[in-house]
## 1
Amino acid sequence: MNIQCPLPTIHRETIRLGHGSGGEMTQQLLSTYIQPLFNNAWIDQAHDSATLPWGADRLVFTTDSFVITPLFFPGGDIGKLAIYGTVNDLAMGAAEAKFLSCSLILEEGLPLETLKKVLQSMAVAAEETGVKLVTGDTKVVERGKGDGIYINTSGVGILMDGQPIAPSRIRSGDQILLSGDIGRHGIAVMASREGLDFESALNSDCAPLNSAVSALIRGGVTLHCLRDLTRGGLATALVELAETSGRAIEVEESQIPVGESVQGACEMLGLDPLYVANEGRFVAFVPEESVDLASSILRETQVGSSCAKIGRVTDKTDAQVTLRNNLGCDRLLQRLPGEQLPRIC
Amino acid sequence: MNIQCPLPTIHRETIRLGHGSGGEMTQQLLSTYIQPLFNNAWIDQAHDSATLPWGADRLVFTTDSFVITPLFFPGGDIGKLAIYGTVNDLAMGAAEAKFLSCSLILEEGLPLETLKKVLQSMAVAAEETGVKLVTGDTKVVERGKGDGIYINTSGVGILMDGQPIAPSRIRSGDQILLSGDIGRHGIAVMASREGLDFESALNSDCAPLNSAVSALIRGGVTLHCLRDLTRGGLATALVELAETSGRAIEVEESQIPVGESVQGACEMLGLDPLYVANEGRFVAFVPEESVDLASSILRETQVGSSCAKIGRVTDKTDAQVTLRNNLGCDRLLQRLPGEQLPRIC
């Protein structure tokens, strides 16, 4: 008997929103279409930035496009996000952001007043994080071919630490620190987009992470890996790091800080906070002997005041992430499978 | 008597296609909204790239987003353009492109086959120009919020010459060399978009310029300034350089090579080839004593085989560009005023 597959194959042959989720489908897209064509020592670092040889120095280089909707949300806007996002990707490579480029794709009909507000916000964020916007580009697409403003920022930074901080440096026994409570960015953006009104005001966690990272490095903490939690949330970041490093990770659900409003919103909407996007949170992998120092330094920073030790890297090499839940049961974490909340950054 | 302005003011307060033309409206947008917020020594270089201090070296940094429609056109595609465009912007700063980032904004529903073709084309172009794609980002926007694929590439390069080549180095007496015939990219894209059929096949001039620039530098030519001719065509590039350098420029229309098909298409469509986009053409400003050497070196390169001496920088400091036409009459050139052919790159 010859049974025809009832799924419309067209869906498997076109780009879907999930390809931009930062989760499983994004990973498939990268491994199928991009990595085979562009493999080199730097892209293989599988980090948010590439650490490159540059004369006597090392240069860290990264890029990010921002397509968030709405452009303005509680706690931030696309302009702030575009600066912080790239500064943060550099910070996660232990690099101090020095110079940024800015490329705008504007939609015909965008009010100039909106553009002005976004640019002002970018200027404030650049000042705050100490980066200079040095080169740019502006394109305009016809009405209906864009969505107000898309912004790309790319950045070059200089290594703060002697050696790059990267997934390949993760070791068994490393402790995992989470810089603060999770899920606020995703829920704030979604609430704003869908017009949901929660009891307590909920702001995005959108924040620059460079000061916290530089405090850790200056404070003498040995850092093995840093990763900011963006589109796929904490779970996806941990799975990626486990796979890239080939190490197993165990985390304790009870140790992961989730705000009451985020918890409530997630329950109401059927979302898992572990997969909700953040824009000002990161995990740090540090050797056991450094974890208390790291934690006390982080607690003194603005973004790390509620940091928590959430788990550790085990001796196993099955590259799996196990979450021990509040009832003591274990659950294997996967990457975000499809698209949870699109257009979040 | 109080006469009301009949123009709908709304048009003056929103983004129009002309803001992306690379001409007068783009310039107004930059000078009104961007430069006051982001002025620094590097953005003030008013070049397609920024030359930055970096330890003992100097680093050249640039960015470009590509929103061309259609994605495939005679002689090229958006992928090729995205690599060449950024390599060329670096070459115009006398820099050898080393590393590129690639950020994709994909529209839901884009056939994966199309994405694959574009990426393959990028890989071939990267190989050809000797650059490595080392970092990237992928976003997906909902159907109807994009136009298939937008690509941003940013690039870092290393100075080939001892000192940067920039508009500020233009001197009176400099001769102006044009690397080849103009207007082919704009006409080829428009013909393809509008389904126009010209008698003779017309391919875009889309090409990498790095080998030609490196040949000039290796050959010992003193280069004062280089500029590739993109959105606003030859006229806009010359006006920009005259204004940035504060020098007057004179060019001879009879010396500017325009292919027969481009000339024919322009006459038919009421376009001026001086304002039609190019993607593989540049002007070089060289001192009188270097012009013959430069010209003979360029003629040996693939992109410069039909190069021509089209004019010179005069003693005047009125920053104007004068075109002497074939009848011996002078005409002052301006930047492209509005939008001639949108979505050309």
## 2
Amino acid sequence: MSKPNFEQTLEDILEKNLPQEELAEVKRLLYGRELDFLFLPKWNGNQDLDVQGYDMGGSITEELRPPRIVRVGLIQHSIVLPTTEPLKKQRNALHLKIQKYVDYAATCGVNLLCLQEAWAMPFAFCTREKYPWCEFAEDAENGPTVILMSELAQRHGMVIICPILERDSANGDTLWNTSVVIEKDGTVIGKHRKNHIPRVGDFNESTYYMEGNTGHPVFETSFGRVAINICYGRHHPQNWMMFGLNGAEIVFNPSATTSHTSEPLWSIEARNAAIANSYYTCAINRVGTEQFPNEFTSGDGAPAHHDFGHFYGSSYITAPDGTRTPGLSRSKDGLLVCELDLNLCRQMKDFWCLRMTQRLDLYARELNEYVQNNLIPQQKHMKQQEKDSKKQ
Amino acid sequence: MSKPNFEQTLEDILEKNLPQEELAEVKRLLYGRELDFLFLPKWNGNQDLDVQGYDMGGSITEELRPPRIVRVGLIQHSIVLPTTEPLKKQRNALHLKIQKYVDYAATCGVNLLCLQEAWAMPFAFCTREKYPWCEFAEDAENGPTVILMSELAQRHGMVIICPILERDSANGDTLWNTSVVIEKDGTVIGKHRKNHIPRVGDFNESTYYMEGNTGHPVFETSFGRVAINICYGRHHPQNWMMFGLNGAEIVFNPSATTSHTSEPLWSIEARNAAIANSYYTCAINRVGTEQFPNEFTSGDGAPAHHDFGHFYGSSYITAPDGTRTPGLSRSKDGLLVCELDLNLCRQMKDFWCLRMTQRLDLYARELNEYVQNNLIPQQKHMKQQEKDSKKQ
């Protein structure tokens, strides 16, 4: 198997090779409705940044309710310095780079911005080493990364979702994988802790932190009701579901995932969640290959090595009708800007009726029985079924 | 918007236009692992049948458990006669055509076969007319379609999933949308009734039948533990989930869905379910455009018309690791044959740990609270969250 060329996205390959008419049909099948581009100011920074802007469209103009238009921005990026540099230098370099991206996102009119998982550090959980990496953890209200983002949120009047490695000093110095929600006035209005923790491939995150204890909060912000399904939680449809039941209109999925582990699944899960729950989903993945000083093994029989594999970016947004944007670059930092009408969420509930036909009482009952009985599976034959249905 | 050319599948367009290396990468991104072809005997019937065979692979050879290899077959097809013909002629013509396909599937070594939703009739629910269409409904044990399939199951030693419109004469002549499970000795071992009924576009099925009362049964057959998620149920992740919790290794999704309504979503939902539940999913869609004698409207402001739109086939199978087959034809009848190792289900549970990290107790509790309270959404701020987490 030859190594993938991450310089090209799927969309690049299709656009380069397909005749116009067939390209249009392939895009319809793969992405849904055709999207208009947004006109965005030019990026003038030094960094090679993939900037893409789309108008998601798809909503109708209602007579009795005005449109609720917001601009969402997603930032994906690589680390800046080698992981062997002093931690403070590593973090400062990331802060500096991302600050420029946030300032630029503001010029693009972004109201609601989300960064990638644990964005102010390398994704060091592959190493299984506690130090120095645990030092990157910081307080969810007063840590340096949240303070920086709080300043930027206030400066730009922007809601920012800031995923960090959290140090919970008030509770036994516990670590959590957390996303902090900052209002446009700079106030931290809440946080969510990652609900599902992976033990797959080099994702040894259960070595560092436990399953979150914040449930499924939805945050009423100045720009819509938002929730955060962190990384591996995207494989869990119930996680997406509960955010939907709690009223989310946009669910962000800040992630860090590698090509070998998940790239063929990446386009499926966040998009399925948007369809099933009639809300917008925003999937963000980190970029690049991170090298670590000490070698480690991956439990797959291969020799010890120093890197986690390639984080393939490809961040994208899906509308409640299942239409999605192309993905950002697979190798470069990027900013994806999307103009959305939040009214489309309720319009899709009216159209597809998925909430109305969801039969939650049935699932609450069956799931409870399943959990309480430690599973007596429903595996039975017709005669038994008929007895049951006559009882009802 | 130009009308799609249903003669070409997505895969046709990609294979025709992409250079070899880029084609391989596009296929990896869109489908996962590369699949080997199965060698199948030639189809000699008159009907133009799209026959495709794949070895799904992906499993490892375990030391303490032998492989559990089965061949699954999916049949997609159009109706035979115009809907204006006498009902008995219409049904007989379908019986005759499908019987030939089943006989051929047997020569391909198929152990476990599934047909499309309500396969022995036109999908007349767009009309909202009760007669003559309700006459197609038949008994789940003694109806002519089940009797035919029972004979074929016995003749070929094949398990057959036979979706019908069910007439429940013993219970007030109720109609259900049902799939009957027939063992390889011809015995009807059970049935499942469609759990989620659409009210979208021309899918006026709630005019004809109600939400099923059979829960989420999994059928222990000679060729693995199977369940059936009928059509619109594929939009409901909880439906897929409960079949998984009840032990399903293969979940069939017999469907009837049209291009305009769902084609860009088709590749997402059944595939997502395979990933999330570590089982095989088999999505089957009917083929062709069905004309009805009386005109009807679609609630979309368009003029009255006589057809439901184009059923686009595209049946496909997904493995528990997310790898999927190409789709069958978008315009022709087809048989998809896949050789699977059922052991891959448990292997993927061990690899991804999605069952282990599922936190069902959390969801049972939250879902129950949601249903009992008629929703008090979890929308709160940090101070409240901290109070809650200290309580735990």
